[in-house]
Amino acid sequence: MKLRLIEPFYDGEEVLLRAECGDDGSIAVTAERADGTVCARGTASIRNASLLPPQRLAEHPLPAIEQRPVPSRDNLIPGELLGTVVQPLDLSGWRPYAERLLQYSNDVLARNFRLGPWIHTASEIDNWGIALEGVQISARGRVQERFDRKGHQFVVLDVTLVDGDRLIQTVRHTAIYKPRRIDVGPSEYSADGVDLTLIRWMLSLTPAERLQVLQRFVNSVEEIRAQNAGN
Question: Containing domain of residue 11, as a range?
Answer without folding.
Answer: 1-47
